Amino acid sequence: MPVLTTQAKKDFSVHTEDSETQQHGSNTNVKVQLQSVSKTYTNGSHALLNANLEVKKGEFLFITGPSGSGKSTLLKLLYGQELPTQGKVIVDESNVAGLRGDRLSLFRRRIGIVFQDYKLITQRTVAENVTFVLQAQGYTRKEIQRRLEPTLKLVGLLSKADCFPDQLSGGEQQRVSIARAIVGTPPLLLADEPTGNLDPDNSWQVIQILQKLNSFGATVIVTTHDEQLVRRCNHPVVQVRNGQLSRK
Ligand SMILES: Nc1ncnc2c1ncn2[C@@H]1O[C@H](COP(=O)(O)OP(=O)(O)OP(=O)(O)O)[C@@H](O)[C@H]1O
Ligand SMILES: [Mg+2]
């Protein structure tokens, strides 16, 4: 079942093109840089080795590479979940490794993250999972309601708003995690295998949703194994191999 209706696209456009969005910063773009970054985990696993990358503001970039090559690690370095063993990770002119406490929290507010393992809160409904970040960011109740419906419509889950994650299929849970990442229209969106559990139709719809956010100025970085999907889009691709990154 296709998830993206024309009406949903229109509704989403309305909620992303207003003053509240501007106040929370969706149309300030983000530049991302990795400078000679290596990452070795404490157990000795090497994920990245002297990796360099520059992502321009407003770019839509795919990251591909074999399982275990370091794609998730790369995204984790960008939002400060992991720290580089060597080198610098710079996002929006901030050295990510130097951010702590409130500054790290504020930095992360500007990033939408689709986690490879979804990370949904099992005791909260779909609607609550999607909106709790907005609540934490101090959006008004009215604004949260105004954003929730078009976002759920966009990912085809309006009828499941009151379900709990364990009442959903894997693909539906994945779409909740996408809704949660985009509802605040962040200037940087990091999506780790956002189509990993979806059929080709739904995968394509999700890519279109991410492209929509990108068309409003967001920088979007997507990891994927789906070669067909990458070929279908005309976006730049970075390959992770042997810990290093190369643009294809
Ligand atoms: N928390 C961790 N502790 C130790 N080693 C880790 C940790 N996370 C990842 N690794 C190792 O780092 C390497 C890169 O892992 P990563 O998860 O970044 O790969 P990936 O490209 O995302 O793989 P996949 O396509 O399977 O998701 C692997 O060798 C992995 O075993
Ligand atoms: Mg991964």
Task: Note the topology.
Blueprint: H1 6-16, H2 19-24, E1 32-40, E2 46-55, E3 60-64, H3 71-78, E4 86-91, E5 94-95, H4 101-109, E6 111-114, H5 126-136, H6 141-154, H7 170-182, E7 188-192, H8 200-215, E8 219-223, H9 227-232, E9 237-241, E10 244-247
Parallel strand pairs: 3-8, 3-9, 6-7, 7-8
Antiparallel strand pairs: 1-2, 1-4, 4-5, 9-10
Helix pairs in contact: 1-6, 5-6, 5-7
The structure holds adenosine-5'-triphosphate and magnesium ion.
The site of adenosine-5'-triphosphate has 13 residues, from helix 3.
Main sheet characteristics: 6 strands, mixed
Structural class: alpha/beta
How many domains? The number is: 1
Superfamily at the CATH H level?
Answer: P-loop containing nucleotide triphosphate hydrolases
Under CATH, the topology can be stated as Rossmann fold
The whole-angstrom Rg is 17 Å
Question: What integer is the average pLDDT?
Answer: 90
How far the N terminus sits from the C terminus, by CA atoms, comes to: 33 Å
Helix content: 25-40%
The portion of residues forming beta strands comes to 15-25%
